[in-house]
Design brief:
alpha/beta; eight-stranded parallel sheet; 9 helices; TIM Barrel
């Protein structure tokens, strides 16, 4: 079933869009099954869970940290994480930079932007992001682009507006900042996100079934 789900998904999205299989809460066996289709990019939202899975699964898996990341936990994923999607402060960015330097790595990151109207969502405002870009001073972090989560809603016009605002901000800065990644869209809204310009989507239930 997982193989069919991944194959179907990849057939329905442009080849320019990278699929992150959201494997949070999923057992090792099911991630291994997805891996055996040739898929290498998996997203986790808890540091401990990702670290444990990374020790038990094949070493060529590209691990994506998609959940809220606390500064005191960066050190646990710094040796192996492929992309951190959830950078939402200068202090976190500097901690990632410090831990990357200790591991003799450059860690790729996305800045998490707050585009949803829900109070529970993390992320930078556009003004805060402007400020962060001016005050980064990091030598072991590479900002690849932006990530955003739209409001959990069926209102397509609202989602389009939220995705559109992020795409506009991305386009405004992508050349000077050398950004290449705009991560928007999950199982329920990835088609609209792609239509609005996303080139990276984070999909869980469409691959692994409903969340545990």
């Amino acid at each position: 079933m997982i193989k069919e789900n991944i194959t179907t998904l990849l057939k329905t999205i442009p080849t320019t869009v990278k699929l992150i299989a959201v494997s949070k809460t999923k057992p090792i066996e099911r991630i291994q099954e997805a891996y055996e289709t040739g898929h290498l990019d998996f997203g986790e939202n808890k540091v401990q869970e990702m670290s444990e899975k990374a020790t038990r699964l094949p070493k060529d898996i590209q691990w994506h940290m998609i959940g809220h990341l606390q500064r005191n936990k960066v050190k646990y994923i710094a040796p192996f994480v492929s992309l951190i999607h959830s950078v939402d402060s200068v202090r976190l960015l500097r901690e990632i930079d410090k831990q990357a330097q200790k591991n003799d790595r450059i860690i790729d990151c996305l800045l998490q932007m707050r585009i949803a109207r829900e109070e529970t969502k993390f992320g930078l405002t556009f003004n805060a992001c402007d400020e962060l870009l001016q005050n980064m001073q990091c030598s072991h972090v590479r900002i690849r682009g932006l990530m955003g989560m739209a409001t959990f809603s069926d209102d397509q016009s609202q989602l389009k507006e939220e995705f559109g605002s992020l795409k506009n901000y991305f386009d405004k800065h992508k050349n000077e900042c050398q950004w290449d990644t705009l991560s928007m869209g999950m199982s329920g809204d990835y088609e609209l996100a792609i239509a609005c310009g996303s080139n990276m989507i984070r999909v869980g239930s469409r691959i692994f079934g409903s969340r545990n």
